[in-house]
């Protein structure tokens, strides 16, 4: 009986020890799990805070970048070009610009955007044509990267950035405005200069004057002033004719010498030639329309074949 009691006592003691060990193990596991959960929660909170801060910084950067650029509506740009209240500068490539431009706008390309050779000419253009305190409205393809690139170049060239505006939506938005883009250059706000047929013929003997005939090929072949260059501007509103004029101007004419321009009657074709040559970098004060064109009697008498 005593042995049984002792045995029961020993068993009871052993059971209590095991129970205590299990209880301790459970408490340790629970504590470990709690610590892990707290750690995960802390890490999650830190990650969330970091993402929030990053998002706020990104939004702040976008807001700051947007604040650097000022915008003007397409309609206001068209009006400004017409009344001369601002310089409207188109920075697209010639191939896009010649398909449709704002009347009386200026042109100096910054496309392709990765072409660093365009930076210096734009800076020089700004010094010559834009450095007068007037606002500048920039037209690019969509009112984004091209205008932003041009803004940077103009600012680096010394133009006050507060004067520089982007035409919102660029040429894409302008195309949606009735009559905003055109290929007609004959109504430009240019002070057209004229030379009489008599004086033009007398200048044929001078090496200081260049002669340009903008009549069609067949008419030119039938009779023209000796030594004159020729480009067909009969269809003066077409991009193809204006591109041919631009190519001849940049490749065959000297911008430092006066150019006397002969057309059918001294009107649309000659005016278109002058507008295109202005885009090619010629000073319009050096460009002259032969008055009355090929209708002038002195001019006709001097024609050769």
Could you provide a short overview of the structure?
The protein is of the alpha/beta class and 305 residues long. The protein is built from 11 helices and 10 strands. It is 50% helix and 11% strand.
How would you describe this protein?
Residues 1-20 form the signal peptide. This protein is α/β, with parallel strands linked by helices. The chain has 3 domains: 1-67; 70-174, Oxidized Rhodanese, domain 1, CATH 3.40.250.10; 194-302, Rhodanese-like domain (Oxidized Rhodanese, domain 1, 3-Layer(aba) Sandwich), CATH 3.40.250.10. Helix content is 50%, strand content 11%. The chain contains 11 helices and 10 strands. Strands 1-5-4-2-3 form a 5-stranded parallel sheet, sandwiched between helices. Strands 6-10-9-7-8 form a 5-stranded parallel sheet. Helix 4 packs across helix 5 (145-156) and helix 9 packs across helix 10.
């Amino acid at each position: 009986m005593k042995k049984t009691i002792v045995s029961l006592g020993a068993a009871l003691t052993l059971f209590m020890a095991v129970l205590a060990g299990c209880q301790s193990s459970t408490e340790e596991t629970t504590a470990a799990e709690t610590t892990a959960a707290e750690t995960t929660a802390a890490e999650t909170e830190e990650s969330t805070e970091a993402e929030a801060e990053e998002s706020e910084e990104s939004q702040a950067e976008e807001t700051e970048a947007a604040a650097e650029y000022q915008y003007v509506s397409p309609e206001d740009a068209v009006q400004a070009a017409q009344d001369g209240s601002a310089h409207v500068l188109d920075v697209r490539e010639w191939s896009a610009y010649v398909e449709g431009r704002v009347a009386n706008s200026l042109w100096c390309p910054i496309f392709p955007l990765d072409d660093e050779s365009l930076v210096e000419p734009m800076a020089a253009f700004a010094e010559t044509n834009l450095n007068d305190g007037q606002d500048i409205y920039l037209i690019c393809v969509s009112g984004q990267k091209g205008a932003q690139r041009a803004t940077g170049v103009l600012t680096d060239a010394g133009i006050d950035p507060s004067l520089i505006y982007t035409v919102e939506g660029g040429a894409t938005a302008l195309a949606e405005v009735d009559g905003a883009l055109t290929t007609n250059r004959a109504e430009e706000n240019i002070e057209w200069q004229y030379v009489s047929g008599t004086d033009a013929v007398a200048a044929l003997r001078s090496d200081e004057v260049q002669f340009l005939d903008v009549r069609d090929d067949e008419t030119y072949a039938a009779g023209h002033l000796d030594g004159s260059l020729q480009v067909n501007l009969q269809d003066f509103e077409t991009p193809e004719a204006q591109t041919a004029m631009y190519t001849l101007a940049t490749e065959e004419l000297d911008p430092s010498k006066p150019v006397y321009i002969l057309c059918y009657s001294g009107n649309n074709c000659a005016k278109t030639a002058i507008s295109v040559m202005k885009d090619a970098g010629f000073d319009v004060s050096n460009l002259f329309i032969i008055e009355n064109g090929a209708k002038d009697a002195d001019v006709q008498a001097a024609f050769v074949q």
